[in-house]
Input
Amino acid sequence: MKPSRLLVFFPLLFLAVAASSPPPPPPHPSPRCKAWLVQSIPTDMPHLPRVPGVLSTGDVLRWLAGNATKSLDVIAQYWQFLAQPDNPKSGDYGFSAEDMEMFGAGEGRAVYKSLEDAADRKHSGFAPDFDQESADLAAGRPNVKNVTLLLGDWWGSGIVHAKVWISDGKDMYIGSANNDWKSLTQVKEVGIYLVDCPSIAKWIETYFGNLWTLSSLNSTAYTRTVWDKQWQVKRKVPCWSHFVHEKLRCRSPLPSSVVVHHVDGYPALADPFMLHIPIETPGSNLSSTSRHSSYLSFAPPELSFRRFQADEQGWVDTIKSVRFGGTVRISTMDWLGQSQYLRQIVFWPSLSSAVSEVIFSKRATVNILVAYWSHFLDGTDEYLKSILYSNILCHSSRRNNCKGRVNIKYYIVPGYEKTGAAKSNNNATGNLYPGFTRVNHGKYAVSDLRAHIGTSNLIWDYFYTTAGVSFGTYNPAIVAQLQEIFDADWNSPYAVTVEPLHTSA
Ligand SMILES: *[C@@H]1O[C@H](CO)[C@@H](O)[C@H](O)[C@H]1NC(C)=O
Ligand SMILES: *[C@@H]1O[C@H](CO)[C@@H](O)[C@H](O)[C@H]1NC(C)=O
Ligand SMILES: *[C@@H]1O[C@H](CO)[C@@H](O)[C@H](O)[C@H]1NC(C)=O
Ligand SMILES: *[C@@H]1O[C@H](CO)[C@@H](O)[C@H](O)[C@H]1NC(C)=O
Ligand SMILES: *[C@@H]1O[C@H](CO)[C@@H](O)[C@H](O)[C@H]1NC(C)=O
Output
């Protein structure tokens, strides 16, 4: 029996689990790679139309565990599949058993059970509820290994924020859903389920291996504090980072990525690595067997390898992929044009600049959906209004003949203002839902040509100090269905227009 591994990443807590080493030999002839879009839709959203052919996150996670016979590798931020209504420290505290069933907590139990079964069966990896669940899964099972990786030791701050499951080196989930019961029935999530795709899985396993390697290295010996010329801050990075001057860089213990001489940091690649494999889409009527380019992107850039693009480029290029006169749709929980966790503040116009560029030059329409919820970040509204100001700039002179436009809406899941533990010190709080629920947590962008499904929030730190993975594709069936998912949200009564800055004429 091959050992499987479990990675637990802190500050904020992540957990990754890796499984057994040698990937299974591909069966002959290899079955075709297939993809389905996956959603979680919170309970009590009767006015949100369902998009046919889209799977549910709870089913997909149960199947990934259920189908694993050799390995299950999980990269997770934290673990909480089992609800904790009896734990006073939990946002689930104080709700009754009936409440929990109404909230859908049974879905989380079912996923946890399928993980336990997989762990009993063979080699599996995973991590626990704040991390108790992963420790419990590892306890007494020599085939399950767990490790802790502190990203803060390597980048000064940051966490493992990727949400990825890989089963038997061929089936995968990549998306916004955490290993949390709430991500199945109380938080709105979007991801992709890939089946029989070993040629995609092997690259994600490489990334997983990079996290694993990091956890076994002495970060003190392998980090430098440098002046980052691109972002104009002093910060800690791994010594092989391209933010370290070429002459002072160490040899990377990881598979290396493209070195471009005479540039600071990681510039956008003109020809990022693309996977040219046909992908069937049984969940869509548009399914085709032609080859379309797909790609993976990774954050932070020091953990990427070969010619894989950094995650920021994956987002920017998706926005810029829009056709002349076409539409870009972006859905995110957070949006800030700056950093969130660094001591020195980084100003980060990368995405808002791409949005303005396509409004001007391509006359594109850009629709952006941002979550409004009980942990809504200060500054969001100001940054969104600054993007809306592009409409005024675009129309500022007649010679622009402006036809492009950005529209922004807040996505408000009903009940968000009544979330948190039901009891505090034995007093009823009046909350109607557990803490950290009732929010749109998906992170994706889709133009008329290309779909990008990520795990990162749209804030500087997620691209430069935080572990994240995205899958993107030009497959027209996936592009069209992701647009449908967006439009169902955008046109629902839960989306409310963000007002522009009112300027005096
Ligand atoms: C495919 O088309 C049929 C007939 O128009 C429709 O009923 C069905 O919902 C469609 N399925 C998907 C996944 O769009
Ligand atoms: C394996 O995955 C398929 C879908 O990809 C699902 O229908 C099936 O139920 C899964 N098997 C198990 C044992 O979970
Ligand atoms: C791994 O699991 C074991 C067994 O439950 C536990 O004792 C240990 O604390 C866990 N370590 C990490 C890093 O989660
Ligand atoms: C880690 O590296 C530092 C600096 O090279 C060294 O002082 C320290 O002893 C190392 N720690 C371990 C556990 O090897
Ligand atoms: C609970 O409620 C009582 C009565 O309203 C109040 O006196 C007490 O301070 C509350 N306890 C806490 C911890 O809020």
